Every structure is written in C-alpha cells, then in structure tokens.
C-alpha cells in the first residue's frame, strides 16, 4: 500500500508526537484500515515531508511519531502566477493545476474586463476555498510545499507587487497559512525577477523571452494572465512601463483556464523545473542549452 500523506496545520518537527484531526482519523481508520506501526507521511507546507509511524491508536486518539524529515532539492527558478478572475468556478481548476505544475505563488486580481464583481466578503471566502484546494492538490501530487494564495487585488496592485523584492528565496505565506520553517532553496543566488504579461493580440514568443539575455539571468518569473475579455491596451502599456515583457501564445485564442496551463507547461518544459540530475538536484535547461 502507498504510504498515506496527510497535511498538518501544526508545524512539524522530528521525534515529536502529533495527534491527527478527526477528518484524517476517519480516512486512516475506516478507509485505509491503518494499524499501530504503519508508516504515515505528514507535511505542513514548509517544504519538507516528514516520515512517521502510528504510535497510538484507540477509540479516542490516532497519533503519529515523526521519525525524520526528508529535505527537497531546490528548483532552478520560481514562478508567480497573477491570474485575473475568470467566470464561474474556473479559478478552482486553475489553482489546482497550477499547484500541480509547481507554481510558487498565486495572486488573483481584478482587471478592467473581469466579469466577477464580488463583495469583499465573497472574495475572502473564495480565497479560503482556493487555499484549501491548493493544500489538497499538494497532498495528492506529493508536493512538499504549498503555494501561497494571496487576497484578491486590483490590477494596479499587481504591477506594484511585481516591483517589490519578489525574488526572495521564499515568499511569505498569508497569515491563515503555515509558517515557513525551512526556506525553499533556489538554484541561483544572484538572479533577477522577470515580468511577463500575456496578451492575445500578440507579443514575443515565450521561448525567445526565456532564452534571451534577461531571461537567462532570471531566477523568478512573474506571470500575468488576463480574464476572458483579455487586457485593454492601456493595461498592457502600464505593464510595459513597469518593465514587463509582452508575450503571445500564437494565433489561436485560448480559454483563460487553458492559457494558464499552457503558459505553465511551457515554462516547466523550457526551464526544466521538474527535471533532475542523477544526484537528485534540479538543473536549468537554459544553462544546458547555452553550453551546447
């Protein structure tokens, strides 16, 4: 049986005993038929998996003792996805798939052509939902960290946030999420942050941006994707004034949820984010191609 993997809202440490919540107890007891001595993997979103064994199991308690922490290798670069709010429940799928595809931070925002017009209360409720979706997606795909889901902000704030020091080794998790105990390592210590805004009316190819002079130096990409109606020219001009590069995805107009996945898949392939050497360390495809 595959070792079950459970998310813990408590910060985890080696050799400590942790009592699991009722929702996890039901799953382990009645679905997996767990027994004392069985292996269980816990993670708290800090960037590591914790291997443990069931030490206590009775009618009132199911407790796991952490045996050791499994460190993870650093990625060649980090990805921030700034996503304009789409209609309906499409953002649920975008958050889920972006988590699986290795995004390090997700920022939902409202642009001039965004269809949803939510109250502050509804927007806050949706953010809570998206954070739960990200946790479940990370658990399922065995990702040891969880991408922070920021509060919904206006488009102008996206440009401001892109100017901040977002190339730090580990972006802060919102207060409702787990604290970062083990900052995620990165492949470069002297890299830069590169902003890319995607526009259906055209722009440079993603490949040319990534393998250009500035793209090769970047260890963080701030990606901005618009709503169903796309960005206005004024919004694109504002982004360019702030140093963003405009990118296109070809002549076909993609649905917003498709565009997000296509962008992330291209980045994943071109940067080698999920590629590792035999020693278990991630490598940067840009460097490999430059040496060929």
What kind of sheet is the major sheet?
Answer: 6 strands, parallel
Q: What is the 3D form?
A: elongated
Radius of gyration: 20 Å
Number of helices: 9
The CATH class assignment of the largest domain is Alpha Beta
Going by CATH, the architecture of the largest domain would be 3-Layer(aba) Sandwich
Averaging pLDDT over every residue, what do you get?
82
Spans of at least 5 consecutive residues with low confidence: 165-180, 182-189, 288-292
CATH topology (fold) name of the largest domain: Alpha/beta knot
Structure class: alpha/beta
Topology:
Layout: E1 5-7, E2 17-19, H1 22-31, E3 39-43, E4 49-57, E5 62-70, E6 78-84, H2 90-100, E7 105-110, H3 120-140, E8 153-154, H4 155-163, E9 192-198, H5 206-210, H6 213-217, E10 218-225, H7 233-241, E11 245-247, H8 256-271, H9 285-291
Parallel strand pairs: 1-3, 6-7, 6-10, 7-8, 9-10, 9-11
Antiparallel strand pairs: 2-5, 3-4, 4-5
Helix pairs in contact: 2-3, 2-8
Describe this structure in words.
It is a single chain. This protein has 292 residues and is of the alpha/beta class. It has two domains: 66 residues, Ribosomal Protein L25, Chain P, CATH 2.40.240.20; 214 residues, Alpha/beta knot (3-Layer(aba) Sandwich), CATH 3.40.1280.10. Helices cover 32% and strands 21% of the residues. It has nine helices and eleven strands. The chain has a six-stranded parallel sheet with strand order 8-7-6-10-9-11, with helices on both faces. The chain has a five-stranded mixed sheet with strand order 1-3-4-5-2. A hairpin with a 4-residue loop joins β4 and β5. The longest helix is centred in the middle third of the chain and has 21 residues.
């Amino acid at each position: 049986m595959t070792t079950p993997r459970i998310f813990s809202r408590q910060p985890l440490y080696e050799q400590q005993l942790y009592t699991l919540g009722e929702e996890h107890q039901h799953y382990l007891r009645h679905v997996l038929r767990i027994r004392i001595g069985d292996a269980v993997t816990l993670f708290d979103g800090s960037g590591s998996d914790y291997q443990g064994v069931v030490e206590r199991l009775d009618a009132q308690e199911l407790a796991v003792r952490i045996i050791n922490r499994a460190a993870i290798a650093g990625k060649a670069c980090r990805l921030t996805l700034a996503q304009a709010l789409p209609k309906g429940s499409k953002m649920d799928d975008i958050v889920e798939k972006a988590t699986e595809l290795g995004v390090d931070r997700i920022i939902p925002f409202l642009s001039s052509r965004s269809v949803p017009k939510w109250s502050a209360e509804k927007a806050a409720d949706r953010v809570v939902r998206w954070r739960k979706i990200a946790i479940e997606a990370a658990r399922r795909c065995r990702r040891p960290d969880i991408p922070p889901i920021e509060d919904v902000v206006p488009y102008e704030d996206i440009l401001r946030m892109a100017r901040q020091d977002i190339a730090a080794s580990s972006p802060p998790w919102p207060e409702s999420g787990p604290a970062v105990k083990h900052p995620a390592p990165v492949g470069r210590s002297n890299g830069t942050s590169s902003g890319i805004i995607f526009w259906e009316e055209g722009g440079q190819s993603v490949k040319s941006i990534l393998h250009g002079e500035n793209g090769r130096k970047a260890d963080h990409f701030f990606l901005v994707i618009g709503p169903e109606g796309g960005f206005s020219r004024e919004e694109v001009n504002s982004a360019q004034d702030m140093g963003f590069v405009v990118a296109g995805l070809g002549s076909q107009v993609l649905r917003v949820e498709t565009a997000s996945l296509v962008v992330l898949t291209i980045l994943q392939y071109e940067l080698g984010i999920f590629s590792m050497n035999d020693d278990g360390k991630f490598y940067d495809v840009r460097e490999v191609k430059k040496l060929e």
